[in-house]
Structure formats: structure tokens, C-alpha cells
Amino acid sequence: MTRRPAHREGPAATRRAAPPPRFDVAIVLTYYLPYTSGLTEVARTVAEGLAARGRRVAVVASRHDPAHPARETVNGVEVFRAPVAARVGRGVLSPGFAPLAGRVARASRVVNIHLPMLEAGAVARLAGNTPVVSTHHDDVWLPPGRLAPLQVKVVDASVGAALRRSAAVVVNNVDHAEHSRHWPLMRGRTLLAIAPPCRQREPAPATFRETAGPHFGFLGRIAHEKGLHHLVDAFRTLPDPEARLLIAGDYSKVAGGSVVGALRTRAGDDTRIRFTGFLDDARVPEFYASLDAFALPSVAEESFGISQAEAMMLGVPSVASDAPGMRVPVSETGFGRLFPPGDAHALAAALTEVAAFPPERRAEGARATRARYGTDACLDAYDALFQEAGAVRGAAA
């Protein structure tokens, strides 16, 4: 009697079943905690917000601060950090970053790559069959230098490669995206405009206030592209001895270097100008409460400006450069003024005007800003997008 061979369903039946994805989403970016920037804050808020909703979230970043561990769990988010071999301008060289990101991405239902990023194209390719969702914050921008054009070209090529592999692309607003060098690629993908998550902070005492005069302020990285030299020049044209200019933000760990020294020189002997340095998160509401007007004088493209929106939520009008992206919170709410980028005299006039806004206008501006920009709306949009993009991967697992 001849025994027939066992029936086989085909080659797939002999393969070992693929393990189910370990993470619902892997978020990949160059700088994560403890670094502070608008891009980092978006990634952190989305990661921790989704983790609080029960999603399994991983973050992959460079280990730009050797004092922090290569792997840890922070507020429900599993953080992986790749060692840094060298630093080049505002970026880092980390040979292990893309392979690490690829491994974590392949163990996830969807991978979210934050752009611009030198390794973006490699990460998207190494993600394998994991759907890619790219968040395009801005085009890479570098101060003038001999190697700057080459660096920009290399990063742009990598960003383009990631966008081509993306199932969807998130932008902060279409106004900014339309002026991107990558717009021809982005508009050909599934494009979603999701405003960055802006935290509604609790009212706090005005501990930074010194006088009864108008107080103007900026909060962010003390870097060249923020245009703070124009803000200092504008403030110095104001004669009021009771006026104060408060410039808050890190100037000790700024990628590409800080310009605080040049700003101090520019401020000269004007004792009304204050540099607070880095502010702990608990002190940020106190800073906003001390201001009559917020300034966002950036000279390079900035896709939104989270700090200005958070100040507006607390009733502080903003004066922003009339440039794609950063003008959106003011133009959509009417709570503040726009000025031609780099025009110090127009900046000074706008600051003086909005500092005189009456309480009822401030209250209405705060309500309008809170209604339009909030963390919950951002998290809802990202959560739905990640679930949709990762549905195919989840079904196949």
C-alpha cells in the first residue's frame, strides 16, 4: 500500500507565521527628550497622548545627550536612542540610527517619520512592509556656509525618498506646505493638515513682570533663524523706560549653535532686555502671564509656532512675521498683528499696538485660539490616521 504525501496548502504553509506587531506606532525623529524644540514637542505630545489612550508607542531618536539611556520608558512611551558618532552643524551622524529605526518600524503597525531628517529615506526603506506616515514640519534650513548647499541637497534628497514611500503626509497647514520645496511630491500623496498640539496651560502668577510698563516676550530656541536680532532692534526703538523685553529659551544646547552672545552684544547697554535661559515647564505659564504681547519674528520658514498659539490661548496677542505657516494662528483668529519679515520698525509698531489691546479683546482672542488649536483635536486626527494606515498591516499579522 502506497502512502500518499500529506496535503500541503502551498509554500506559505511551511513558513513560520509572522509575529504580530509589537507597537501600534513607531515615531522616528532626530532629537527627542531632553531636547526642546517645536518639532520635538509635537512628537512628544502625540507619543505620550496616544500612549495615554492605550496605544503601544515607540520613539526612535539619536542619543544626542550621552547622559540619557539607550532605552527607557517615559510616560508610557518606549524610547530607543542610537549613539551619535559626530555632529555636523545642526545635525548628528549616527550610523546605527537608521538600522535601529528600521527594526522598530518593522515591529510596528505604522511608522511616523518626522521631517526634515538626514536618514528619512533610509528609514522609510528599512521599514519594509510597515506603512509610512510622514509629518513634514519644514524644509531643512542652514545658515550660510561653504558646505550648507551640499548638506541641504543631501537632506532634501532623503526627504524626497521618504515622501515617495509615504502612504500619507501630515502638514501643519497647507499655507506653509504650498511654499515647501517638496510641495510637488506632497500634493501627489494623501495629504492631511493637522495643526500641532497646543497645550492649554493653566493661569499662573506673572512672576517675570518687573514694572507697570509693557512687557514683550519670545519663547523658543535662541537660534539665528528665529530673527531675534530684529526683535532686539525693534524693542530698542521704544523709549519707555518701564518697558521690558523677555527672551526665554535654551541657549546652551541648541543644535547648530546659539546666537545669545550676538544678541547680548546687540542689546548693548539696554538694561530693559532680559535673557531668562531655559524655562522649566512649570514656569512657562508664569512667563506667558507676564507678557502684554508675544513676538515671533522668525526670518526662516516656520510651519506654525506652537509657543505663540499657547500664549494666545492665555490671552496674549501675537505679533508674527507675515510668512507662510507662522502667520496662520494670527490670520485665522485675528488675535494679533503680522509684519513684514525683517522690518524692525513695523515690528515695533505692531508690538506697541497689540500691547494696548483691552481685556475684553484678549478674552475673546483666547477663546478663539483655544477653539481652533487644542491637543485633543490633534490627537484624534493622528490616532485615526495611524489606525487607518496600520489596518492593513494589522490584518496581515
UniProtKB/TrEMBL annotation:
Its EC number is 2.4.-.-. Keywords: Glycosyltransferase, Transferase. The keyword Glycosyltransferase applies. The keyword Ribonucleoprotein does not apply. Residues 214-363 form the Glycosyl transferase family domain. Pfam families: Glyco_trans_4_4 (PF13579), Glycos_transf_1 (PF00534). This is Glycosyltransferase family 4 protein.
